[in-house]
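Duplicate of #3305? Posting structure anyway:
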């Protein structure tokens, strides 16, 4: 009896061990690209991008301030420095003024949660190399030893997770003026001092310390993935890291990888496909269309208004993508009121129309020019028709849906079923109620039991 019991326990142990290990991925793209995308990412649909760093101190032009000033020597940036700072002033001198003295991570998280976003991606390190945590590989060029003197990655992460949002980290591979990187570049990327002493130690440190649900890689365009050791890192991330079962990655892992390799595809900033892609994708877009970081010189006409943001979100989700909308906090640690107003406006719209966004799939038809332009999403046997302008009439015609006697049509936010009639071949005509006021200028028809 004892032998049988031991054999049963051994069998259960082997079963448990084999299921916990799962698939082992090898450090090559054929294997890594075969990994299924964790389901949570496709379901959440909407996230917030946060670009924050030393560039928030000059807050002029864009987050590429240092490169535009010293690399490209853009006359506008050179003139800005000449007129406002002494000749000996260096970019490093901005860091002590990155105070973040008003930064309240719970306030940030409340605003992001109120937006209806389900994940947040913070820049842990942009191309300037300054890390928003105490990286042991960044000397004093980090937010713990300099500037805010606090771990911004940890503080925001704790607040985000208290609200059951997913937490992701952006990390650039390259740094504009890092001497190790410049040396490797000079060698034609035949040496890897920068990768071995800076990039990879920081990536491993980020994952082990903060356990992000998403790694948003960037800065990949100058060197191949073999220089960056990208496949080796991803194999560890998917096989042995503390987030191996949940972590999601993008596609920026070396020259030629974008829109081809990785978890989901960014392809390019503000990627806007014209038809349904055959791979999970994400559009990253900034409320300030001229910059990802906060700018003191931004104008109101540089900002996306709420209806434009909602149209963009709806289009992206209808084509199977996720929408990652960026705001840049100030050096003092504040989200500008105009950004907060946009985010809360999105949240108010999603409170009514979220069923047509979250956990949906692209329908067999993504869009049609009905009485007004319409975008479709679907969830099981339910189809959602989202229209982003007021048809200004009582009847609304949809050509794509195939109805049945049991079809039910409602307007999200209005519990009463709407009267409708089928068209001759396919489609239907709906009798609309008075549409409720919507600052987003978008409404959704819910069609149950359509083919």
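Output from current build:
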């Amino acid at each position: 009896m004892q032998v049988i019991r031991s054999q049963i326990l051994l069998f259960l142990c082997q079963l448990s061990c084999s299921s916990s290990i799962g698939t082992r991925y090898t450090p090559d793209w054929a294997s890594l690209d075969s990994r299924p995308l964790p389901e949570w990412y496709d379901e959440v649909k909407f996230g917030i991008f946060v670009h924050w760093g030393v560039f928030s101190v000059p807050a002029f032009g864009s987050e590429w301030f240092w490169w535009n000033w010293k690399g490209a020597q853009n006359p506008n940036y050179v003139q800005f420095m000449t007129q406002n700072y002494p000749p000996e002033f260096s970019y490093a001198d901005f860091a002590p003024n990155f105070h973040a003295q008003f930064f309240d991570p719970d306030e940030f998280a409340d605003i992001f949660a109120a937006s209806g976003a389900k994940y947040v991606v913070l820049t842990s390190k942009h191309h300037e190399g300054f890390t928003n945590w105490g990286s042991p590989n960044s000397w004093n060029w980090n937010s713990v030893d300099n500037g805010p003197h606090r771990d911004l990655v940890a503080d925001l992460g704790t607040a985000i997770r208290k609200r059951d949002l997913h937490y992701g980290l952006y990390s650039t591979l390259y740094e504009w003026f890092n001497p190790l990187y410049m040396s490797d570049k000079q060698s034609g990327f035949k040496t890897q001092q920068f990768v071995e002493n800076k990039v990879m130690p920081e990536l491993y440190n980020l994952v082990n310390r903060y356990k992000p649900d998403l790694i948003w890689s960037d800065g990949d365009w100058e060197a191949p993935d073999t220089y960056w050791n990208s496949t080796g890192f991803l194999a560890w991330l998917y096989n042995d890291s503390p987030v191996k079962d949940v972590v999601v990655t993008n596609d920026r892992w070396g020259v030629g990888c974008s829109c081809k390799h990785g978890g989901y595809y960014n392809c390019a900033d503000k990627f806007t496909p014209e038809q349904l892609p055959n791979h999970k994708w994400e559009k990253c877009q900034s409320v300030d269309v001229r910059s990802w970081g906060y700018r003191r010189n931004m104008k109101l006409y540089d900002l996306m208004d709420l209806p434009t943001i909602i149209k963009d979100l709806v289009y992206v989700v209808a084509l199977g993508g996720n929408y990652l909308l960026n705001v840049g906090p100030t050096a003092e640690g504040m989200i500008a009121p105009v950004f907060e107003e946009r985010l809360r406006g999105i949240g108010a719209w999603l409170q009514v129309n979220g069923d047509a966004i979250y956990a949906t799939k692209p329908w067999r038809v993504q869009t049609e020019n009905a009485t007004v332009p319409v975008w479709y999403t679907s969830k099981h046997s339910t189809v959602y028709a989202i229209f982003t302008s007021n048809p200004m009439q009582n009847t609304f015609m949809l050509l794509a849906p195939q109805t049945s006697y049991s079809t039910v049509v409602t307007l999200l936010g209005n519990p009463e079923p709407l009267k409708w009639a089928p068209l001759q071949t396919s489609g239907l005509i709906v009798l609309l109620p008075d549409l409720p006021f919507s600052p987003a200028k978008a409404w959704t028809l819910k069609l149950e039991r359509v083919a």
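Confirmed duplicate; merging threads. The first helix runs from residue 2 to 21. Residues 361-448 form a domain with the Immunoglobulin-like fold (CATH 2.60.40.1180).
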